Every structure is written in C-alpha cells, then in structure tokens.
Amino acid sequence: MKRTELLVAIVDGQGGGMGRALAEAVKKDFPDLWVRALGTNALATAAMLKGGADEGATGENAVVFGAGRAHILLGPVGVLAANGLLGEVTPRMAEAIGASGAVKILLPSQRCSIRLAVGPGQPMQYYLDEAMRLLDEEVRRLTA
Fold first, then answer.
1. 92-to-41, 56, 67, 144 alpha-carbon distances in Å
2. Closest CA relative to residue 102, chosen from 62, 55, 56, 142
3. Beta strand pairing status for 72-76 and 55-58?
4. How many CB atoms neighbour CB 46 within 10 A?
5. What are the φ and ψ backbone dihedral angles of 11, each rounded to 5 degrees?
6. pLDDT tens per residue, range 81-139
7. What is the pLDDT of residues 34-84, one digit of tens each?
8. Per-residue three-class SS string for 2-45
9. What integer pLDDT is reported at residue 47 of this predicted model?
10. Which H helix or E strand runs over 62?
C-alpha cells in the first residue's frame, strides 16, 4: 500500500482540542497522509479541520462509517467507551471504533474516567509526540 492510500481518521468530541492538536501534528510530520476528522459534534469537527484535516464528518453515523474504513485511528482513549467524552460517544460509536480493523493510537485523557497504568502523567505534548512515533511505525509497516 502507498502512503497516499492510507486513511488516517481522528475521532474527537467536546471542543475538539485534542483532535486539532493531532491533526496539526499528523499534517506536520506526514503531510502526504489523508486525514479525515470524525467529530462527535460540529465544534470538534471544525476544530480538527482548522488543524489541517483534509475532510471532516460529524455525528454518530459519520463516526461509525468512518471508523470502519480507516487504516489508522487516532483520538482520546475515551472514544472506546460507551458514553465516553462526557456522554458524547454513543454505544454504537464505541462499538464501531473498537471493532474497526484500524490500528488505534489513543491518548490518555483525564476527562473520561479511564486511568492508564503507564506511570506519572505527562504534558499533552509528550503524548502527541508519542502518538506521532507510533504513527510512523504503523505507516512504515503498512507501506512496506
């Protein structure tokens, strides 16, 4: 598979701040990857588009449809939990994301009541850098 054929989907909700930061980081480090913003709400989708996503879609059906077509999914860990992100992630969304064959690169978030036993909390930039490192590994693996 060519790099230009990979679909990277970013899923976020609420204000889309983490999704926007992810979109900016992906487009900076991997400008040739196609990035689709999948927002649980219009504000999140708009933020990710401002961050550089190539296209965006909003709502439950967009997330369900998009998750099944992505090669790599990025977002906060709360997108895997029904009613995550303060209730914005519907059970159907969480199921579709979890069932997707896409590689999932998820960032910790203090807002989703999911604690990861990975050591002391780090600044968001640390997690963004680590996500880009993992994305690089997956892009290399999928395009080898």
1. 15, 19, 11, 33
2. 142
3. unpaired
4. 18
5. -110, 130
6. 999 999 999 999 999 999 999 999 999 987 777 888 888 889 999 999 999 999 999 99
7. 999 999 999 999 999 999 999 999 999 999 999 999 999 999 999 999 999
8. CHHHCEEEEEECCCCHHHHHHHHHHHHHCCCCEEEEEECCHHHH
9. 98
10. helix 60-67
What the block records as the tokens of 139 is 């892009």
The CA–CA distances, whole Å, from 83 to 1, 25, 62, 93 equal: 35, 27, 17, 9
Say which amino acid occupies 37.
A
Q: Which residue has the tokens 């926007």?
A: 20
Q: Residues with Cβ < 8 Å from 18, sequence gap 6 or more?
A: 12, 75, 76, 107, 109, 124
The residue type at 21 = A
Which tokens is 115 given? 């604690």
Residue 134's contacts (CB-CB under 8 Å, 6 or more residues apart) are 105
How many angstroms from the chain centroid is the CA of residue 124? 14
Please tell me the distance from the alpha carbon of residue 105 to that of residue 41, in angstroms, as a whole number: 21
Report the alpha-carbon distance of residue 137 to residue 128 in Å, rounded: 14
